[in-house]
Amino acid sequence: MFLEERQKAILAYLDKHERCSVQYFSEIFKVSKETIRKDLSTLAKQLLVIRCHGGAMIKRHRLVSNVTDKECITSLMTRYEKQKFKKLGDRMNGNVCILGSFNVDIVAQVARFPKGGESILAQKSMIGPGGKGANQALAASHADAKVHFVAKVGTDQFSQFAHDHLSSSKINSFTLYQSDKEPTGNAVIYVSEENGENMIAIYPGANLTITNKEIVMLESYLKQSDILLVQLENNIDAVLNAMKLAKAMGVKVVLNPAPYSKDIQQLLSYIDIVTPNETEASLMSGVEVNDFDSAKLAAEKIYSLGIQTVIITLGSKGSLVYDGKHHQHIKPFLAVPVDTTGAGDAFNGAFCASLAKGETLYQAAIYASAFASLAVEREGASNMPSHQNVLKRMANI
Ligand code: ATP
Ligand code: RIB
What does the subunit comment say (predicted)? Predict the structure, then answer.
């Protein structure tokens, strides 16, 4: 077998089995261990595998600058619809695919929010990873799901920052596309020390440039996924096509409609579960949501748009789950909030992880509530608690 062919075969094997020994490949390909070691070193230099004692592991973390032509989204969907390909919804395996944003968060901690025209001194400032997509992917991986995350960044220095952050996280695999036209997204955030509340201005940049070809590439990950989780920080056509593809493949679709956009109308028929916060629920339903009763009304209105399950998050008041029959109030877990930025992201990621692992809607919402209550006690939107600590908090009530 030629060198190139052998290396392709090694990658294909590792893609499936994640890890393998030098000895194994040397026996399979009938070449010396030294030859295999050289192969693995070449692949490691290309950042495709990680060498480990006696062998290698696949590196599923890829920074991709160009996608070659592939089947178009419509023909792909038709193929799945014709095949009547359906995943077994009752056999959830804990796999969550997340398409979403990556932003660099520039955070100023202030005693109170400044008024228009006023300059104030910040008590603290930090630059860290963020973006609703990346935060939700991190939350889902901390909640012990197997996560594949897809996002798009620029070619600036922040793309490496994104890559380093995701590579060192618990996220199982990710694909980071790069735009040479738009910079990596960023968010300027004020966090008030008064109550941990925040104000955010987002510049989405490369997050708005996801192409159809890049969505087509989701197919292989969706095949293995129980749930697709999306938000509204990417271009709407990309979100729509990802949802359509997931639906055609029988994958459950969860939309966190944040930040709210009128474009959501186009997405309605592809949503299984929608998770607005109070503001987004008000805008979706036309009912001003500020307590559990108004949330009930809003959830009914949103349900009547054709969405089977509505979960409205109500900040420190907990959340409401509505499935067309029952309104269930998920009580908040007691927390001492330090920074509520990303509370919704923590909730969404943890909820999808729990649902994908086979929990009921109600149980998954309780788990997400406990998870988010721990997240608001930590500084930074991407600072997620561990699964063990969530279980402890749930056991303490
Ligand atoms: P953000 O936009 O800041 O990411 P959000 O508005 O999308 O947040 P929220 O509704 O504020 O999301 O919060 C999501 C969930 O987090 C709530 O449903 C609740 O379970 C939990 N949570 C938020 N704030 C608190 C708090 N102060 N105490 C306990 N739990 C909280
Ligand atoms: O939900 C919090 C996130 O919203 C921040 O990380 C910021 O990047 C914005 O996307």
Answer: Homodimer.
| 267: nearest Cα among 227, 221, 305, 214 | 305
Structure tokens at 56: 């290698």
Reported as a single tens digit per residue, the pLDDT across 14-58 is 777 777 889 999 998 999 999 998 988 888 777 677 777 777 766
User: 136 and 254 in contact (C-beta within 8 Å)?
Assistant: no
Mean pLDDT by 10 residues, the chain (397 residues): 80 78 90 90 76 69 58 80 61 91 96 94 95 98 96 94 92 92 96 86 97 91 94 98 95 97 97 98 98 98 98 97 97 93 97 97 98 96 96 91
Domains of the chain: residue spans and CATH: 3-59 (1.10.10.10), 95-395 (3.40.1190.20)
Residues 54/21, Cβ–Cβ less than 8 Å: yes
* 200 CB within 6 A, ligand 2: yes
Pocket test of ligand 1: the residue of 254, 275, 277, 282 to mutate, having most ligand atoms within 8 Å of its CB, is: 277
CA atoms 185, 191, 197, 201: torsion sign: negative
| Residues β-bridged to residue 99 | 150, 230
CA distances 371 to 121, 296, 314, Å, are: 32, 23, 15
Q: How far apart are CA 84 and CA 355, in angstroms?
A: 24
Q: For residue 395, how far is its CA from the centre of ligand 2 (angstroms)?
A: 30
Cα 132 to Cα 101: distance, rounded to the nearest angstrom = 6
Contacts of 392 (CB under 8 A, 6+ apart): none
Verify cis geometry, omega within 30 degrees of 0, for the bond prior to 259: yes
